[in-house]
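Hey L., structure's done. Input below.
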Amino acid sequence: MNKIKIDTSKREKRENIKFHIILIIISILFLVPLISMVSISLRGQGFANYVKVFADVKVPKYFLNSIIITVPTVFLVIFISSLAAFAFSKLKMSGKNVVFYIFLCGLMLPVASIIVQLFIMIVKFKLINNYLAVILPLTALILPFGLLIFKNYMDDIPNDILEASLIDGCTPFSTYFRVVLPLSLPALSAVTIFAFLFSWNEFMLPLVFFRKNELFPITLLPRYFLAEHQFKLSLVFAGFTGIVLPVLILYIILQKYFIEGLTAGAIK
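Output:
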């Protein structure tokens, strides 16, 4: 028996070593482009390249535009998806499962497949060169993911807690806002991070619906850099690094909550 235990432990150690080696190799493959980008951005004048790029008057405006687009999108996604998930999970409605799965079909729709229909709608509503032209479609595209995460988590919240709140005089909405939403913090954090990353990195919608440069978000900044500094790759890559690093740092800091939110409600 001791030999079997020793052999099993050795086998597990070998498998763990192999697994970690594979993870290290994959990490290196992903880090190489990022390291190359940073090294190119430091050529010539070093960190002075970053100072020169971000001293450009248009760069703060592009960052501000991304914030104006991202913050309302994240708020709308959290509010609508969590409220809808509460209804699908806890309220009695006929045909709610069918409607829920119809909503989930949105997970299969890439932006490129609906861009023509979106453009027609935006033109009809006269939203060209308006932040809403990007905020509303982004909200609709992210909602299915938020709905899925919130509902899976809310399904595990005991109904007894909701019944107790209703007995204490809470309305269904106050139960959602005061009881269910605070208990859904892991799901809330995951949806918040995903919605932020998705909306911050969006490129196609602003490119199609914005005609004025002063409305462009940070993802369209490379077009400006390539036009202004096309023969100075160090400045161009300094701009690219400035776009990537905030999102990368945010994800590294909050990845624990993101993973917890994704796995919350997965095991019942």
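The two ends are 35 Å apart (CA to CA). The mean pLDDT is 85.

-- N.
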